[in-house]
Amino acid sequence: MILGAAGCLALAWWQWTRFESNSGSFQNLGYALQWPMFAGFVVYAYYKFVRYEDAPPQPVDRTAVTEIPQDLLPQKPTAATRVDDGVDDPALREYNAYLAELARKDKEHPAP
What is the mean pLDDT of the chain? Predict the structure, then answer.
């Protein structure tokens, strides 16, 4: 853990010196800020592994039956029912007839 964290901090210092040089760019600055986070992750992972050795998590009971709650997944949408609002639109009637004709032709001659 010490080697990993020290290596990450050394790489951060190296990137910082590259950023300060004449050929440095903001990409080097980004890496210089990123490497200390990696060092922190190494320390955090080590801490978690030590805690798991002291008190491991409870094993999962593989024989227990689990069910998905009914309201976990979204409900499948249902087709809207046609509401006759009393509007007699000839263009809508013509379009629906056209769609019905296309559906009838599609059933008669299915695609290969």
Answer: 88
Q: What is the 3-state secondary structure (H, E, C) of 28-97?
A: HHHHHHHHHHHHHHHHHHHHHHHHHHHCCCCCCCCCCCCCCCCCCCCCCCCCCCCCCCCCCCHHHHHHHH
Cβ atoms of 48 and 18 closer than 8 Å: no
Q: What is the pLDDT of residues 19-73, one digit of tens each?
A: 999 888 999 999 999 999 999 999 999 999 999 888 888 888 888 888 888 888 8
Q: How far is CA 85 from CA 19, 82, 99, in A?
A: 70, 9, 21
Asked if residues 36 and 74 have their Cβ atoms less than 8 Å apart, the reply is: no
**Size (the chain), residues:** 112
User: d(Cα 97, Cα 44) in Å, to the nearest integer?
Assistant: 67
**pTM for this model (two decimals):** 0.49
**By percentage, how much of the chain surpasses pLDDT 70?**
93
Rounded Cα gap, residues 1 and 7, in angstroms: 10
